Amino acid sequence: MCGENSSSLSPGYFILNGVPGLEAAHPWIALPFCLLYVIAVLGNCGLIYLIGHEEALHRPMYYFLALLSFTDVTLCTTTVPNMLCIFWFNLKEIDFNACLAQMFFVHMLTGMESGVLMLMALDRYVAICYPLRYATILTNPVIAKAGLATFLRGVLLILPFALLTKRLPYCRGNFIPHTYCDHMSVAKVSCGNFKVNAIYGLLAALLIGGFDMFCITVSYTMILRAVVSLSSADARQKAFGTCTSHICAIVITYVPALFTIFTHRFGGQNIPHHVHILIANLYLMLPPTLNPIVYGVKTKQIREGVIKLFFKEKDVLVMK
What is the pLDDT averaged over residues 260-267? Predict the structure, then answer.
């Protein structure tokens, strides 16, 4: 069904069908996603608050972590509330322009998350390979410029997604078999030629994800060489310890992404469509949910900050 503007063949709205084939289980599927979302919001907002109020955490590594937390909580907020409305209240309609906006923010924030992980890898490289120059290299202006560059890169490379999708004619219907407006899911609803969308989507993935993974790999290769060359076993253990939480965050982010990409490209005929949709949703939900837990457990300074903040608030309540 097309929208009112038949001359431009643009639908007035889309229908997000949720998880195809599992419509009867939608209310139950929503429960774990709702729980993951609550954990993600509380965990990431708690990290941002802790880093902002604890002077011991006013360091480049934690500034980048705060930026990652902000990106994560914004990313899951662009999709999960709408997803829960679909699952629980059967509110499946989304305005055409709102769909394009959601698509832009999902892909832009995903690219920004990848960029922040790359910046955090570079931060660990400087900290371990050039410890005496760390404070002079990663100054606050440098950190601010790096964060702004990551944001602008995402905006400039993802904005064409919305523009290319908006130009397509939609005359075959407005039903999207997904829980949110993904770039190619929307493009495939079109009755026009979306080959340009597919090619540009792969190009953007290479320019963002491919470049970031290359930088992360090079950074940790150099870190590994520097750590292995240390004579003290305690120094090697300490150096590896500072990277453990970040490596976990990288694995949590990139493994689901690579699995999604490879199953779409090489295993699409063997894996049911609803599995693709569930994996795509977990890809957006797992990093925001697990990153605060990983950093809270693996990073000593954050654990100490949480304990200090907790007892400080407790003492204030007792005094009142």
Answer: 60
Alpha helix positions (H), 130-272? 134-137, 140-166, 183-187, 195-205, 211-228, 233-266
The DSSP output letter for 167 is T
Gap between the Cα atoms of 200 and 260, Å rounded:
18
A 10 A CB-CB count for 77 gives 16
One-letter identity of residue 30 = A
Q: With 70 as the cut, is the pLDDT of residue 318 above it? A: no
Give which of 311, 292, 305 is closest to 47, Cα–Cα.
292
- Cα separation, 53 vs 317, in Å, equals 18
| Interatomic CA distance for residues 37 and 281, integer angstroms | 11
Please name the residue that has the structure tokens 């779409």.
264
pLDDT value at residue 279: 85
Burial label for 69, CB within 10 Å (0-12, 13-18, 19+), is buried
Convert the pLDDT of each residue in 132-161 to its tens digit. 999 999 999 999 999 999 999 999 999 999
Specify the DSSP element, H or E, that contains 95.
Answer: strand 93-95
What pLDDT was estimated at residue 6?
A: 40
Give the span between the Cα atoms of 241 and 266, in whole angstroms: 37
Q: At residue 316, does pLDDT exceed 50?
A: no
pTM of the model: 0.90
Strands 175-176 and 13-16: parallel
